[in-house]
């Protein structure tokens, strides 16, 4: 889809935001006194060339969904990357961030990894220093209050360039729980009833900034959502909000927009969301005249240092503090006096004229999170020791970003089409260390962001995909209207779900990688190689994806139902029905299939093998003759439950399943202890209530909703043994001449109800030489007959990471998922294996009065699409 034209014009200022400092050029071992990367670590280190400032960093792309330009060099600027000493940087990274070993962390925009040294330093401080509530007057309280004041000053100096004492006196730091709370504070304290009390904000703002409109509209103010900075500059709104850096794309505005707004309309107030910008750069308030600076700046400190979380600030220009009205609610520390009884009165702090409180004294009600503030100081100390300054981090991260953009821009399919399309602004010059992008296949169709996220996770990459809490970015990129969004909502689409495309094939999200202080070149190179391996299509792969699945031809061996499996407890082991045995059918699936599930006792969320692979070692088995459910697990006493008697606890409770809520019944507290002991977490056994209305919460096929119990998408899932055999052939071929042969996968890893095979083939074998069915012939099934019962195909089964769990041992592997990702991608890029089915009860040929059932070994006939 074509994208909306760029809307953020080029803006420049005379003074760079990031002050370049010399980079070290020699290697030393790290010590507690300093870092090999910090210019303060040694007095004898000779400086090398200065890094480029982020203010002068060029972003080579415009904001659209077209291919990125290839104007950047494919070589990495090592005067900036690695802080001028790559060897020392690599060693420091390994020593200071052991949690990064074995993974590629590319989500610094969400939160950078925590340096354990900062936590250890805080622990040491707590061990020898007594900190106390600053509202008291004890020695410890007074010292804590002094440390809090010092940290306020450090925030202004370290992150906002206010190193001059006179300049810093013009600003105040109000502690909050984060950026969202800081923005909400302004929204609630603003006088929306005065003249011109209107709000304007940029479309491509974070949801937390957009959320101000809820307060504004509820209090009668008008709200404008504007696409361009030019429109913001000319807006007559009393309060204007914008992000210093777009959290989804990295496009930067910085402080220049505030300057232009203030020059045109000095009485207009400006709120800047600096959360994304401050992650690697200084928002230099000292670089511009005070009268042209924004009035309010919101930030979160974990975005900068990883820890502490739950602490942020609202930076307030003191001359604008009067614009924030006192909240009707008052708390400890924010008042001068109040009445005990009626008539009720209260005097806020400083209202008597006896004192002149600062903004933070007037607004900060209650005891501050003083230990978190102390912890922030230690995080800043560690950051300075490791890197020297925020400006040096900026140079390092931007060098990597430029390198990553260039490498991704070079990726092309065999037919010459681009693989990566970066979200950016045509006319905007500066870019932060964040890349928002969409992948495209060789035919020009977008690849689903959920598919990318799952495959990245399986291969050790930590990235972000989805709406990125910035609806304006992906809706403008793919030309959605508000009416489109409303229709999607009415159809059940919501943030955080797994939907990737609308009915027209437009993406419902984007992907993002981002860099920070400890990002490495290996992270970039490995990610590019990952994209090449799984998303860059050769001619052979292009034909494979688009080839019609071969139909079953006449004269081939008779097809039969080789294996039938019931899964009584969702995500636990399956019960394979013996050869020649029958099993009853219902419209919701095989009888008792996924009728029970385990949920987290604390959150109510359904447990899954994806997170708890040990679940597969729980073996439930239903005896239809005795009407009992038997459950076994290694080193645990066997359980025996009646199927037809009411549960001990018949109360109905909601549980979270696939992003929705389902009604379930709690079975028994003693059973909960059994499962909790085996899995090592507090959980409960729940059952779908007998006789209740069946669920269809996650059935996304065309037509009316399908009745389900606790299955994810459909009542039945079908595969063929020939398809499993082909997957094992691919795995073997891709292993090359490795000395270690890959372990063949079993059909059980696909957790199907039905596995079809031929009459002369042994079911569930992965090495049978007599299987003559074409691999993946089930893709073309329309109507299927098993014995006397008919089943209708709904669509292909989209696969997730759970197929990598060995159903006998619970051991995880990425081999099946990676193999299918290369070989079994749909046109939309989804990994598919197997076919969803429903039972056509209306076509049943079972005798009157006989309950419909099918038998393992039953003959199978089918009608293919178009036949």
UniProtKB/TrEMBL annotation:
Q: Where along the chain is composition biased (Low complexity)?
A: 24-54
Q: Where is this region: Disordered?
A: 1-64
Say if the entry is tagged with keyword Lyase: no
Write down the Pfam families for this protein, in alphabetical order.
Answer: Aminotran_5 (PF00266), MOSC (PF03473), MOSC_N (PF03476)
Q: Name one GO biological process term.
A: Mo-molybdopterin cofactor biosynthetic process
Kindly give the InterPro entries that the UniProt entry links to this protein: Aminotrans_V_dom, MoCF_Sase_C, MOCOS_middle, PyrdxlP-dep_Trfase, PyrdxlP-dep_Trfase_major
Q: What sequence ranges are listed for the domain MOSC?
A: 683-863
The entry's keywords: Molybdenum cofactor biosynthesis
* One GO MF term attached to the UniProt entry: molybdenum ion binding
Q: Does the keyword Cytoplasm apply?
A: no
Q: Which domain of life is it from?
A: Eukaryota
Tell me where the signal peptide lies: none
Q: What is the name listed in the Swiss-Prot or TrEMBL entry for this protein?
A: MOSC domain-containing protein
Which species is listed as the source? Microbotryum lychnidis-dioicae (strain p1A1 Lamole / MvSl-1064) (Anther smut fungus)
Q: What is the lineage of its organism?
A: Eukaryota, Fungi, Dikarya, Basidiomycota, Pucciniomycotina
């Amino acid at each position: 889809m074509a994208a909306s034209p760029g809307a953020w014009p080029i803006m420049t200022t005379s003074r760079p935001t990031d002050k370049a400092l010399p980079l070290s050029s020699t290697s030393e071992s790290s010590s507690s006194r300093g870092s090999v990367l910090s210019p303060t670590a040694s007095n004898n280190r000779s400086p090398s060339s200065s890094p480029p400032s982020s203010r002068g960093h060029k972003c080579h792309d415009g904001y659209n969904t077209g291919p990125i330009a290839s104007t950047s060099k494919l070589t990495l600027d090592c005067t900036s990357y690695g802080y001028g000493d790559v060897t020392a940087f690599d060693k420091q990274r390994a020593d200071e961030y052991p949690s990064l070993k074995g993974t590629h962390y590319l989500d610094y925009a969400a939160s950078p990894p925590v340096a354990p040294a900062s936590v250890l330093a805080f622990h040491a401080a707590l061990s020898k220093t007594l900190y106390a509530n600053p509202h008291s007057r004890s020695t410890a309280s007074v010292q804590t209050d002094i440390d809090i004041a010092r940290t306020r000053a450090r925030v202004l100096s370290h992150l906002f360039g206010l190193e001059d004492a006179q300049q810093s006196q013009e600003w105040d730091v109000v502690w909050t729980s984060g950026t969202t709370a800081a923005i909400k504070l302004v929204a609630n304290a603003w006088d929306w009833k005065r003249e011109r009390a209107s709000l304007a904000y940029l479309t491509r703002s974070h949801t937390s900034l957009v959320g101000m409109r809820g307060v504004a509209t509820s209090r009668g103010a008008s709200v404008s959502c504007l696409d361009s900075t030019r429109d913001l500059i000319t807006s007559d709104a009393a309060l204007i909000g914008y992000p210093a850096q777009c959290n989804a794309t990295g496009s930067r505005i910085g402080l220049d927009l505030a300057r232009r707004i203030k020059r045109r309309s000095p009485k207009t107030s400006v709120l800047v969301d600096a959360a994304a910008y401050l992650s690697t750069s200084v928002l230099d308030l000292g670089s511009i005249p005070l009268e042209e600076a924004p009035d309010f700046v919101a930030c979160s400190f974990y975005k900068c240092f990883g820890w502490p979380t739950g602490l942020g600030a609202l930076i307030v220009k003191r001359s604008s503090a009067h614009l924030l009205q006192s909240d009707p609610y008052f708390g400890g520390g924010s008042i001068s006096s109040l009445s005990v009884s009626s008539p009720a009165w209260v005097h806020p702090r400083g209202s008597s004229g006896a004192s002149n409180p600062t903004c933070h004294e007037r607004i900060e009600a209650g005891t501050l999170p003083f230990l978190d503030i102390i912890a922030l100081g230690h995080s800043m100390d560690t950051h300075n020791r490791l890197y020297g300054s925020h400006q040096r981090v900026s140079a390092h991260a931007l060098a990597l970003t430029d390198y990553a953009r260039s490498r991704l821009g070079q990726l092309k399919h065999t037919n010459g089409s681009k693989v990566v399309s970066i979200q950016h602004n045509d006319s905007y010059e500066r870019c932060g260390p964040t890349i928002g992008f969409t992948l495209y296949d060789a035919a020009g169709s977008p690849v689903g962001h959920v598919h990318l996220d799952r495959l990245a996770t399986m291969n050790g990459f930590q990235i972000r995909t989805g709406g990125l809490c910035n609806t304006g970015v992906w809706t403008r990129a793919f030309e959605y209207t508000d009416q489109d969004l409303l229709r999607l909502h009415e159809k059940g689409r919501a943030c955080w779900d797994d939907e990737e495309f609308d009915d027209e094939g437009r993406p419902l999200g984007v992907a993002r990688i981002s860099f920070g202080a400890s990002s490495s070149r290996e992270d970039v190179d490995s990610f590019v190689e990952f994209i090449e391996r799984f998303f860059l299509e050769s001619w052979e792969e292009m034909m494979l994806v688009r080839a019609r699945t071969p139909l079953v031809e006449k004269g081939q061996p008779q097809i039969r139902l080789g294996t039938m499996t019931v899964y009584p407890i969702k995500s636990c082991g399956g019960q394979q029905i013996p050869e020649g045995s029958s099993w009853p059918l219902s419209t919701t699936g095989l009888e008792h299939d996924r009728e029970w599930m385990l949920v987290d006792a604390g959150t109510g969320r359904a447990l899954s093998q994806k997170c708890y692979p040990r679940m597969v070692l729980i073996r439930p088995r239903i005896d239809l003759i005795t009407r009992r459910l038997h459950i076994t697990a290694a080193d645990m006493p066997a359980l025996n439950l009646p199927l037809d008697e009411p549960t001990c606890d018949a109360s109905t409770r909601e549980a979270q399943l696939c992003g929705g809520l389902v009604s379930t019944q709690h079975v028994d507290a003693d059973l909960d202890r059994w499962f909790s002991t085996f899995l090592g977490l507090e959980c409960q056994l729940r059952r779908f209530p007998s006789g209740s209305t069946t669920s269809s919460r996650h059935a996304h096929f065309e037509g009316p909703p399908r009745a389900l119990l606790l299955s994810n998408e459909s009542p039945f899932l079908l595969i063929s043994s020939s398809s499993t055999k082909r997957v094992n052939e691919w795995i073997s071929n891709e292993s090359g001449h490795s000395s270690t042969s890959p372990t063949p996968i079993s059909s059980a890893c696909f957790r199907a109800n039905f596995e079809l095979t031929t009459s002369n083939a042994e079911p569930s074998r992965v090495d049978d030489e007599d299987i003559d069915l074409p691999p993946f012939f089930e893709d073309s099934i329309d109507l299927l007959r098993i014995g006397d019962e008919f089943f209708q195909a709904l669509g292909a089964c989209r696969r997730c990471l759970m197929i990598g769990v060995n159903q006998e041992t619970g051991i995880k592997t990425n081999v099946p998922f990676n193999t299918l990702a290369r070989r079994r991608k749909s046109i939309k890029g989804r990994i598919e294996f197997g076919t969803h089915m429903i039972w056509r009860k209306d076509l049943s040929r079972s005798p009157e009065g006989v309950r419909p059932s099918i038998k393992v070994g039953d003959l199978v006939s089918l009608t293919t699409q178009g036949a």
